[in-house]
Amino acid sequence: MESGRLSSTEQALIRESWQKVSSNLLQHGIILFTRLFDLDPDLLPLFQYNCRQFSSPQECLSSPEFLDHIRKVMLVIDAAVTHLENLSSLEEYLANLGKKHQTVGVKVDSFSAVGESLLFMLEKCLGTAFSPDVREAWTRLYGAVVKAMSRGWDARES
């Protein structure tokens, strides 16, 4: 993940902004996924628990199983923030996570909508503190995470 190397300034911006978000990961995760389903409603059928298909994003967002998924996603972001100086330490974990996403039918392309949703959530949470520099730092971090996750996809899928 060398290309994802962040400057000390970018790391500080990410840590400072994440501190505000991490006070309520579930609430902010719900904002992220609400936005994701707005941007790409076709992702909804990928989320099934006990063979149950959700009829609406609202139904999905209120299910205990999906709320657990949101918590897990937010903890992955938290892990990336925690390991900013050494993102390569997460390389294998993220590649395996990518493989799991491929197995359930997620396409690598879907991660652009997730990235937009992440930035949307950060902007909503941070307000005026979400400066262009903060946006750029998070864009670079997310790009490095997606690059590592995409290594988990089969070559023919990418």
TrEMBL record:
Occurrences of domain Globin (ranges): 5-154
Protein name: Neuroglobin
Free-text function comment from the UniProt entry: Monomeric globin with a bis-histidyl six-coordinate heme-iron atom through which it can bind dioxygen, carbon monoxide and nitric oxide. Could help transport oxygen and increase its availability to the metabolically active neuronal tissues, though its low quantity in tissues as well as its high affinity for dioxygen, which may limit its oxygen-releasing ability, argue against it. The ferrous/deoxygenated form exhibits a nitrite reductase activity and it could produce nitric oxide which in turn inhibits cellular respiration in response to hypoxia.
Gene3D superfamilies: Globins (1.10.490.10)
Pfam families from the UniProt entry: Globin
Any single GO CC term annotated in Swiss-Prot or TrEMBL for this entry: mitochondrial matrix
SUPFAM superfamilies on file: Globin-like
GO molecular function, one term: metal ion binding
UniProt keyword list: Cytoplasm, Heme, Iron, Metal-binding, Mitochondrion, Oxidoreductase, Oxygen transport, Transport
Lineage: Eukaryota, Metazoa, Chordata, Craniata, Vertebrata
Family: Belongs to the globin family.
InterPro entries: Globin (IPR000971), Globin-like_OT (IPR050532), Globin-like_sf (IPR009050), Globin/Proto (IPR012292)
Main subcellular localisation: cytoplasm
Organism of origin: Chelydra serpentina
